[in-house]
User: What shape does this take?
Amino acid sequence: MAAHRARRAPPRTPTARRLRALYDSLVERFGPQQWWPARTALEVVIGAYLTQNTAWKSVERSLANLEARGLLSLDGLRSIPEADLRELIRPSGFMTRKTAALKAWVAFLDAHYGGRIESLRKAAQRSSASVRSQLLALPAVGPETADAILLYALGVPAMVVDEYLRRIVTRHGLAPENAKYPEVQALAEQAFAADLPRDRARHYNEFHALVVLAGKLHCGRVARCQGCPLRWDLPRSPPADPSA
Assistant: This one.
């Protein structure tokens, strides 16, 4: 019988190679970020919900409110009345919807995983696709929130696609202007397809963090290309920099 051979990753497309080169440029300029701005897996989950449609500074105020009341725990989220929780997370906005969503997530964890994030993590490591489907079935959980929870709270490779990444890939001609989440995600995953599975979560983490940093500094609603480490890859003359 022929010896078992490790399956090779398919060769990267030219577009995926370009995106990987952009990642390398960001690493060279900014260095490793080692990012999600939270101390525990539970804080990651809460932050992933609260950061929807708001700035992280507002999320930090909400987390500080919860911590000051001794409620930054699963028991705290279970016990606090919804009216009180809405007031504590008010800085993050949309507090009615986000309160209901957080309560639904805790109920989901209790019903399916014995109320333990570690059990959810083990399930995700066995089948991230199954856990992703479960998360997407919860209120107020879209692909970005589900993938952020998988990557940062549960430690499995899940490519997070946000508005910053969408802007970068479309402005650089790597994807069409109307590209949807799955299309951008597939492109980004292809950029790291040759890496060993154990390295992908780390690379996905760094990639997302660096994309956010580049987006804040250069690739906002109005492109500020002056000094951007990705400018070399633009397929056409970059947009005028309003700060120049």
Summary: Residues 197-217 form the longest helix (21 residues). Confidence is low (pLDDT under 50) at residues 1-9, 238-244.
